[in-house]
Amino acid sequence: MDKEKALILARKDPRKKETFDYSLEELKDLTKTAGGEVVSVLVQQLEKPHKAHYLGDGKLEEARGVIEEDDIELVIINDELSPTQLRNITNRLEVRVIDRSQLILDIFAYRAKTKEGKLQVELAQLQYLLPRLSGQGVQLSRLGGGIGTRGPGETKLETDRRHIRRRIRDVRTRLDQVVEHRKQYRERRKENSAFQVAIVGYTNAGKTTFFNKITSADSLQEDKLFATLDPLTRQTQLPSGLEVLMSDTVGFIQHLPTTLIAAFRSTLEEVTEADFILHIVDASASDHDQHEKTVLSLLEELGAENLPRLTVYNKQDKVEGPFTPMEKPSVQTSFKDDRGVGDVLSAIEEVLSENWDPYHTYVKAEEGKFLKTLELNTLVYVRDFLEERGEYVVHGYIDPLHPLRDKVIPKEHKDE
């Protein structure tokens, strides 16, 4: 399939050079992920976007020339446009125009595989499109495919606002049912005191590679943005034997469309419901510090910034020169090397041992089932059989909120 030829139009705020360069490179990667080929990039220095046309008249005329000369099929704007700006630029350039948000939505639409993922994408697309239907409409019925037109709801869309509003209500109802089902599932996990680890990170940081290696899962693993869209949860064990549930989440990105954050709430709830955050960073990315800040900012928005967290600086095999971690506690590794995964699991235990309560208890030889329960639910570091007592002595660490705590730490020591 031929790649769609794209022209990128971008506004550069002279006060934000560093973030601009990074967002422009990211937009190129997004276009590639969506199946497009960036033929040309036009940039205009403006502190504020033009209210009606986003860029100035001269730059739009220059864009028209590039479109004709290079047979451009698509113009991609490196910002989220207002409905008026989108309509005006489309009329002016006489070619299909999409903005950064629509491009991200398009990739999500292409990558969503589960029923929930497809519903979430459709809801986000509908919410995005509704205010952008002009008098004649965006003429969605004649879009005829291409980047920015994909999605579970594309064949159902009409220019009739009432139809789209009805569809939004219908999708929300169906999504609420799926979300309720997921909520019940999470509550059951809580009742079983399952320890939950949410893997978060900027898109393409290596989250799914890590997830697959520790859980033997076969989820999509690609060197592309947004390879994972649907939340996956699998059980695994830490070196001590502690059982944990690992959840692989959607990749974070700067300027994620607000409709997408809202629509993917159940995916992101895997983060807010977790007991521990594993933040994976592509240390080889030139702007990895910006990636980190974006993820930390979104974690704050989700109310998950105070959960115990370990930052993993991945892809060290590609890092050139000295590397200074921005966050602590952290571990520097590469998932290319199988030892890298072991390093991370051991580091998770270290962080937990600093946050959990130490315990020292004795378990009778005939209480093998309880001993196994301790091994699966706490960090056990010493387990020795004392023949003279006919008991096991067990040293370890336990989550202060775990129901087993009262059985291994006498009440008089609770507040020590």
Automatic annotation (TrEMBL):
GTPase that associates with the 50S ribosomal subunit and may have a role during protein synthesis or ribosome biogenesis. The gene is hflX. The keyword Nucleus does not apply. It is found in: Cytoplasm. PROSITE patterns: G_HFLX. Residues 195-356 form the Hflx-type G domain. Transmembrane segments: none annotated. This is GTPase HflX. Keywords: Cytoplasm, GTP-binding, Magnesium, Metal-binding, Nucleotide-binding. PANTHER family: GTP-BINDING PROTEIN 6-RELATED, GTP-BINDING PROTEIN HFLX. Belongs to the TRAFAC class OBG-HflX-like GTPase superfamily. HflX GTPase family. Pfam families: GTP-bdg_M (PF16360), GTP-bdg_N (PF13167), MMR_HSR1 (PF01926). Monomer. Associates with the 50S ribosomal subunit. InterPro entries: G_HFLX_dom (IPR030394), GTP-bd (IPR006073), GTP-bd_M (IPR032305), GTPase_HflX (IPR016496), GTPase_HflX_N (IPR025121), GTPase_HflX_N_sf (IPR042108), P-loop_NTPase (IPR027417).
